[in-house]
Amino acid sequence: MRTVISDLLLDIASEKNGYSIGKPWRFTEHSLAAVVPIIRVTKDTRNYRLLSEVKNLVKIKDTGHIDKIELINRDEYPVLIKSGEILEGGTQTRTVTVSQIVMPQEKVVLDCACVYSSKGIMSGQDMAPSVYSPMPVRRKVFQGHYTSGKLDNLSSDLYRYDSKIQQDIWASVNQHYQSSARGFSAFAADVGEAPIIGSISYATPEQDLAGRITETQDKYKDVLKEVPKLDNQVGICLLTMSGLESMESFNHPESWEAIRKAILGSDVSSIADISDQDGLFEFREDKAKSIVRELLEKEYSEKVAVEKEGTATYILDEEKFMGEVVTLYDRPIHCAFLKKAS
Question: What is the pLDDT of residue 302?
């Protein structure tokens, strides 16, 4: 049965309603990853904002509970809070676990998880958006989705938070810490310019995910500068030698522009992987579009995670991929997909 969710995915796959799948880009011919842009030409006016755009008008406060953060939207627009966004302040750093729209003047309690295990909770402390969680952390976050429960203005019960999921997320933070160090050492060796690109070592504490992401972005700043900024771009897909790894797409170019740096920066280590120095692998540019279409044309189960007046968040699931779609006034405004861990 066709739904607003399947309509969105099929619009992108069939390149209708202004959507198109762009030309893949790789950092060098030795890269083992490619970025595929999603484009949309539209005359629609955007009727929402992202958290990073209105952070001074959104009040975020630590509730004192590891898996709950209070947020009040004082902006005139609905605000999209994205799963994977990291919130920091004078308290324990968290990542948002379920995307949702917060309406003007609405107060909600967001579901979240800790991404800084050695930093204590300080109830009542203000928090603010920081960076975006890398792929290993987002995978563990998505694994905690469940689909019963409703949201009201005081509390939420949308996410199956438990000690195992939290331990898995902490383990993914450590995985990112280790892989980012190895990745940058290999990158520096491959380009042969270690004195130019900066110190091989990292100064960030092992448990500080946000700090590690920020430091990594700085180390790879020349790579990030090379990623094309396209007119009317609304998202990207990341392809590696293992196939399609992730996809993020919005309904409007202004939304992508608002979060572009954070999303690219979260997975820049993959984008910068140029370890195929001997040219052992062949990148098939002609297959990139078909791989993206295969993702979008799959049969997903759709279940509601958030449902309130004017907006909903749906969790999508199938054998190899998991995803999320947010709607506003019965129109999809954002979708995200991740390949499941093998």
Answer: 87
Give residue 156's pLDDT. Answer: 46
Ranges of beta strands (E only) in 23-149 are: 33-40, 49-50, 58-62, 68-73, 79-81, 85-89, 91-96, 100-102, 107-114, 126-132
pLDDT tens digits for range 97-118 = 999 999 999 999 999 999 999 9
Question: Residue 316: what pLDDT?
Answer: 92
> Alpha helix locations (H) across 26-162?
135-143
For the chain, how far is it from start to end, CA to CA, in angstroms?
A: 29
Mean pLDDT of 226-237: 96
Backbone torsions φ then ψ of 108, nearest 5 degrees: -135, 165
Separation of alpha carbons 216 and 231, rounded Å: 27
Q: Beta strands 49-50 and 79-81: pairing type?
A: parallel
Q: Whole-angstrom Cα distance, residue 175 to residue 320?
A: 21
d(CA 301, CA 113): 25
Residue type, 6: S
Alpha-carbon dihedral of residues 293, 136, 342, 14, nearest 10 degrees?
A: 0
What pLDDT sits at residue 181?
Answer: 78
Secondary structure of residue 119 in the 3-state scheme: coil
How does residue 193 score in pLDDT terms, banded at 50, 70 and 90? Answer: low
| Residue 332 to residues 75, 119, 130, 270, 300, Cα–Cα distance (Å) | 21, 37, 25, 29, 16
Tokens matching residue 146: 């469940």
d(CA 63, CA 126): 10
- In this structure, what token pair is assigned to residue 252? 């409007």
Distance, in Å, from the CA atom of 253 to the CA atom of 233, rounded to the nearest integer, reads 5
CB of 174 closer than 8 Å to CB of 80:
no
Per-residue pLDDT band at 154 (split at 50, 70, 90): very low
Contacts of 127 (CB under 8 A, 6+ apart): 60, 61, 62, 69, 87, 88, 89, 91, 94
Answer whether 97's CB lies under 8 Å from 83's CB.
yes
SS3 state at 68:
strand
Average pLDDT, rounded, for the chain: 88
